[in-house]
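Comment thread on ticket #2218

A.B. wrote:
> Attaching the input chain for the structure job we discussed in standup.
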Amino acid sequence: MKNIVIIGCGNGIGLRTAQILSQENKIIGISRTENPELNHPNINFHQMDIVSGWLDRIDFPEIVDGLVYTPGSINLKPFNKFSTDDFKNDFEINVLGSVRVIQKLLPNLKKSKSASIVLFSSVAAGLGMPFHASVAVSKSAVEGLTRSLAAEFSTSKIRVNAIAPSLTDTKLASQLLSSMEKREASSKRHPLQRIGAPDDIAELTVFLISEKSSWITGQVFTVDGGISGLKL
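C.D. wrote:
> Ran it. Output below, let me know if you need it in another format.
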């Protein structure tokens, strides 16, 4: 069994990823939110805010084979309504949290024969969308971090990739999907005529963590129902 650390496993994409990977791997899960669905013999759960929590209190395994960082934010409003603190808070969640845990676990990842890191961007990083300025800034930084670390860590056989989803049916997006009218409007914006499901993203995450993707690094995979690349 491999040792996989999943940050943000309490809900949505992180939860589904933990559930799938725990079938054949040992999971060290960290999230602000406890979830009874994480009650599995292969999941060692720790309740913690990754931005402010004390990582040294967690007894990580000596060898870490995979790291998945799923925390994110959806902070949407007109640009002149954003404060600088809004940008700072989104950057802390999306970027600095991942930097913090990667720096903590880098020695453990280097001891693996083939480690993999999966970070999360957003379709908004590559597609200009109104009211997404803060999210776009932080997620663009995630994409830059992905490529930079993929290059730097390649000599240690550590792969680094990112996934950039469009709107996905998770707790984080609940305000955007709070009525049937909103769901229908969001679905129609995507060429495939539906919003994403956690499984759509989790299955790709599992692939990128696995040996099946052993020759893939430095990539950003857009999983968005076609919205960023198709015009119908």
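A.B. wrote:
> Thanks. Noting for the ticket: The radius of gyration is 17 Å.
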